[in-house]
């Protein structure tokens, strides 16, 4: 599915680099990949590390690619779409990872019926463990969706959703790594408070989160069922869980995701 495609990136930042790593690991050749990146230092780094073609011209990358991944910051969306809006789009698929930028805004930047798939990945793509959500545009085909899913499954796991749910995805998994890192830091601080060396406390906290997530994904059990298995009557875990309930832990997490979802919606309305 990917071997006969030339894939171009508009933007060569961290997420684009993660996707490049995944594509190369998945069998794509460096010759089939091209990146448009405005900063010369970044172009040199990507060329050196991945032996691929990096240029400055966005329109040239669009013209020479079958699949174009829009990987610039949302603040640059209007400028970039104006630059490439006059480029021929027949036979091309645009995959956008620009947070908050609606599919309609991308489709409206080009004449005719342009095929667009919008994706919300997250930063664990950098270690090939992303959680991504995929939403097709009005003219995207089933094959387009399958191709986009294939690309993002090279850097983690992907789910298909309606575009109206992408703000919730942003609030949950897009911003989620920051919540999880804060939780890990708090666990580590608690370990230090109780006498553990910092490196051991952080290692224990991170591995606990990693291992628990892996257990959940592999068993497919409800989180409450797995939690019950480590909660002995009158034991240490139920004592700790009692404090979480008293302090409103779950409600706080839900409110956090709500706030990030609302902010994602607000930012999208500005573009």
Task: Give an account of the 3D structure.
This protein has 271 residues and is α/β, with parallel strands linked by helices. It folds into 2 domains: 7-170, NAD(P)-binding Rossmann-like Domain (Rossmann fold), CATH 3.40.50.720; 174-270, Orthogonal Bundle (ProC C-terminal domain-like fold). Helices cover 53% and strands 14% of the residues. Strands 3-2-1-4-5-6-7-8 form an 8-stranded mixed beta sheet. Strand 4, helix 4 and strand 5 (93-96) form a beta-alpha-beta unit. The two termini are 33 Å apart. The relative contact order is 0.10.
Q: Could you name the CATH topology of the largest domain?
A: Rossmann fold
Residue-averaged pLDDT, rounded? 94
Can you summarize the main beta sheet?
Answer: 8 strands, mixed
With strands numbered from the N-terminus, the spatial order across the biggest sheet is 3-2-1-4-5-6-7-8
Total beta strands: 8
Structural class: alpha/beta
Low-confidence stretches: none
Looking at the overall shape, the CATH architecture of the largest domain is 3-Layer(aba) Sandwich
Envelope shape: elongated
Measured distance between first and last alpha carbons = 33 Å
The percent range for helix content is: 40-55%
Specify Rg, calculated over alpha carbons.
21 Å
CATH superfamily of the largest domain: NAD(P)-binding Rossmann-like Domain
Taken as a percent bin, the fraction of beta residues is 5-15%
Number of domains: 2
Task: State the name of the first-level CATH class of the largest domain.
Answer: Alpha Beta
SSE pattern, N- to C-terminal: EHEHEHEHEHEEHEHHHHHH
Number of helices: 12
